[in-house]
Amino acid sequence: MNLISWIFLLLFFAAAGVGLLMALRAQKATADASQAKANAEADIKAERERLLAEANREAQRLRERGQQEAEALRKESELKAKELALQARQEAEKLLTERQNNLEKHEQRIQAKEQGLQSKEEGLDKKLQQVDLKAKDLDALNEKRKAELEKLEAKQAEAKQLVEEQARRLEEIAGLTRDDAKKELISQLEYSAKMDAAKMVRRIEDEAVEDAAKKARWTIGAAIQRVASDVVTEQAVSSVQLPSDDLKGRIIGREGRNIRALEKATGCDLIVDDTPESIVVSSFDPIRREVARQAILKLLADGRIHPARIEEVVEKVKVDMDQHLKEIGEAACIELGFPDVHPKLHKLVGRLNYRTSYGQNVLEHTKEVARIAEYMAGEMGANAKLARRAGLFHDIGKAIDREVEGTHIEIGMQLMQRYGEKEEVIHAMSCHHGDFEPRTVEAMLITAADALSAARPGARREMLETYVKRLEQLEGIANSYKGVQKSFAMQAGREIRILVDAGSVNDDQAYWIAKDVSRRIESEMQYPGQIKVTVMRELRAVEIAR
User: Fold this and answer.
1) Structural domains for the chain
2) pTM for the model
3) Nearest to residue 388, comparing CAs of 374, 409, 403?
4) Mutual orientation of helices 362-380 and 307-335 as an angle, nearest 10°?
5) Contact status, residue 460 vs residue 359, Cβ threshold 8 Å
6) DSSP state of 233
7) How many Cβ atoms from other residues are within 10 Å of residue 321's Cβ?
8) For the chain, is the Cβ count within 10 Å smaller at the N or the C terminus?
């Protein structure tokens, strides 16, 4: 049943209920109710007609609404169908276009291949023609050689007859039989062959020596050329750029207390002159100089510049410097192909970046030695990886030779043994200065590579190294006294400042240390001018209020 039928059914039941109600009322009415009954029936009829009319109108309205919705759905479906058809058509056209493009490209490739094959066929035809011509020439040459061979055979037969006749005549003249003459001839030929062999052996030996020398020179030259690097000259000063000249006064501080605190904490000289927007940090120790430079930059960025803050920043920069050294060492080991190096060796390798030998950067020197040794080992058929590893660590002792007693070779051997390096690596790196007799080819190559790296033009300068050694000797004399905490050679070696422990050294002992150090400097060192010795004794009492 549809909606209209339901509506009619409801209207029917409603009308029936109204009629029943009116009938019940009519039964209870008085005799006069007959007229009312008639009126009520008329009203019921009118109401029934009205309800039927409303139901018809509602049904018509619902029917029209249903038709409208159906029409809207039909139009929407048609639109969607048209859209889908359009999309399908577009995709089909796209696929067709792509297929056509692919076919065109394929046809172009086929045409190119056909052209290539055609050109190859033409080339083969030409080569076949040339082969045919050469074959004809060879046939003619063979015929010519056959004729020459026949002539030679005839001449050989004739020569054989002449030799036999000459031999017979020689026998008659010499009075020797053929066997005796043969023995004499063999002995002479044997002597001549021995002389020729001796000359040839000597010539071969001379050529071998000459070729070996040439090969060695070529190998050395090729190794140097292959691993050639720029020469970096180490300096003793660093410049710090300032945003403004006004900051120079803050760095100096009231009555110079800030600059004195910086020099005391870092062990470097700070030169504040008329150079615009810059100050100079001077020290023979590159690590100290870099620590001072970084500390100054951090203080300028922070803005708080006073003695307590200076000491705090310098200590933090020293910690950061340790991490920086580890990163440099790890990068160098990975660069040379050794990721398995003990982690504690990374810092030692990184320290070599701030160490010089006669002006040559030791880290760059070790990497250069490793590459030269590797190349020469490869040319000679030796263990190239072993030579490269020994070259990297051959100067590792120089990282701490200023702090530990002994030569850098002895210190390096101890470090290698401590951190589990192989015996062949330790032996190869220990022989590069002739302290030990080399037992392997790799040890000899490390010695040669070290000499080549140091001997390159401009690689080393003795003046800076001599200057550095003089400053190290100054600090070594000062540090040899009991109670000395730190010592700093400053002013290009014209002054040394000694920090002593106030708890173990009194004022009288401080004066005695200053005088004794000056006497030792006069007796043990050679230097121009004079050297000022300053002993500083400071007692600090620090407590924290909580």
Assistant:
1) 3-146 (no CATH), 237-459 (3.30.1370.10), 461-546 (3.30.70.1350)
2) 0.46
3) 374
4) 10
5) yes
6) B
7) 19
8) C
